[in-house]
UniProtKB/TrEMBL annotation:
Residues 1-30 form the signal peptide. It comes from the Bacteria. Pfam families: CBM_2 (PF00553), Esterase_PHB (PF10503). InterPro entries: AB_hydrolase_fold, CBD2, CBM2/CBM3_carb-bd_dom_sf, CBM2_carb-bd_dom_sf, Esterase_phb, Plant_Biomass_Hydrol_Est. Residues 319-426 form the CBM2 domain. This is PHB depolymerase family esterase. It comes from Nonomuraea salmonea. Keywords: Hydrolase, Signal.
Length: 426
């Protein structure tokens, strides 16, 4: 009850945003949110709701979307954009519901902080395995996101089950095991108030201790936090960064720092692309609230679920270099009626180029049949090669490369000119 009381005001404020129409509800569809029972081991009697969009392909991706205290799976379904994005990108969504008093998830007990230890994480994993078997979802594309209590559970699930989840996104959460208690309570005031600070290795050791002996890959992590969060205070943002960069063996120094929107500061660690191992977004002046205003779409990009991860970050405006400040090297290898082309884009300007698109005209009779490290459309004529998720930024003095295979009718000429985000290249 204490946890419920402390979080209720913040959640009510978030729900007011829903009422005000600031959070987009899922569109009308023949697909419906459905409750599932009998899904497997469920020590804390969690409830499970499932959303399967119309037209889901074979082996779809799976997202677990975890609600805040006083909330429910259906409330998180109607109050966030994940179902609409599932309709758009054709992935399945599980919405767990906590049933204890206060409707908070257990992120503090010794059982919850251990692989297969019991409590809520075990019930959520049973839901995941049920859907994986029933709908043949792709086990290599299983993800989790959540807000507040759900964000804390996101951290817990990534720590307990690195073999299940490939990535997570936490909105207004705390590090794995920060909320740990041994007295049976579910509230940790020191953690909530941002008073627990550990070294990166200490935080990382807590994650590693949750699943002794595990040596496989670790899930990628996206962290969101408002600077004015009065419920789970802002210092928890940096503590999560410490934890997950250490888990991935990364430096605390960002590989990229930018501002995708006014008041947002984004840092990426271990990579500069949309799917870096760790990404953190600090929201200036924002309190304790649900994901809104395009945030969910950035989660889907981070997971690689927007058109199979081929889309650049939609919140980043493509930046053109000055005319002549890019140089393209185009190397062809031809045979009979086929060819391959290797393309290198060098940024010779003093500014980074983001979300790049290289435009060029294929000579008559040439057609693209496959490509790597870029998406090329259409297959012939005037074409555009767009970056993929992991190579969307070209640093000053840096370069990006891609290639493609095609066919020709005897014309093995090269494109006469290139433009990068609309600016001519040499």
């Amino acid at each position: 009850m204490k946890l419920k009381a402390r979080l209720a005001g913040a959640v009510i404020a978030a729900l007011a945003l829903v009422v005000a129409g600031l959070i987009t509800a899922p569109p009308a569809s023949s697909a419906q949110l459905t409750e599932v029972t009998g899904f497997g081991t469920n020590p804390t009697n969690l409830r499970m709701h499932l959303y399967v969009p119309d037209g889901v392909p074979a082996r779809p991706a799976l997202l677990v979307a975890v609600h805040y205290c006083t909330g429910s799976g259906p409330a998180f379904y109607s109050g966030t954009e994940f179902a609409r994005l599932a309709d758009q990108h054709k992935f399945v969504v599980i919405y767990p519901s906590a049933t204890r008093s206060g409707s908070c998830f257990d992120v503090s007990s010794p059982q919850a902080l251990r692989h297969d230890g019991g409590s809520d994480p075990v019930g959520i994993i049973s839901m995941v395995r049920y859907v994986q078997q029933r709908y043949d979802t792709d086990p290599d594309r299983t993800f989790v996101t959540g807000a507040s209590s759900g964000a804390m559970m996101t951290n817990v699930l990534l720590g307990d089950y690195p073999d299940v989840f490939k990535a997570g996104a936490a909105f207004s959460g705390v590090p794995f095991a920060c909320f740990a208690t041994t007295d049976g309570s579910s509230w940790n005031s020191a953690c909530a108030n941002g008073q627990i600070s550990r070294t990166p290795q200490q935080w990382g050791d807590l994650v590693r201790a949750a699943y002794p002996g595990y040596s496989g890959p670790r899930p990628r992590m996206q962290i969101w936090h408002g600077t004015e969060d009065g419920t789970l205070r802002y210092p928890n943002f940096q503590e999560q960064i410490k934890q997950w960069t250490d888990v991935h063996g990364l430096s605390q120094t960002p590989s990229l720092t930018d501002q995708p929107r006014s008041g947002w500061t984004r840092t990426r660690y271990g990579g500069t692309g949309t799917q870096a191992p760790v990404e953190a977004i600090s929201l200036q002046g924002v309190g304790h609230s649900l994901p809104q205003g395009g945030m969910a779409a950035m989660v889907i990009d981070f997971f690689g679920l927007s058109d199979d991860g081929q889309d650049p970050d939609p919140t980043t405006t493509p930046t053109p270099p000055p005319p002549g400040a890019c140089q393209v090297t185009y190397t062809m290898n031809t045979w009979n009626t086929g060819f391959t082309a290797e393309v290198k884009i060098a940024n010779t300007s003093q500014s980074p180029v983001s979300s790049w698109t290289l435009g060029f005209a294929l000579p008559a009779g040439q057609t693209v049949t496959s490509a790597w490290n870029a998406t090329i459309t259409p297959a012939g004529g005037q074409v555009s090669a767009r970056n993929v998720s992991y190579n969307g930024t070209i640093a000053p003095g840096g370069s990006a490369s891609f290639g493609f295979q095609g066919t020709h009718n005897g014309n093995t000429g090269k494109p006469p000119a290139f433009t990068l985000n609309g600016a001519a290249c040499s």
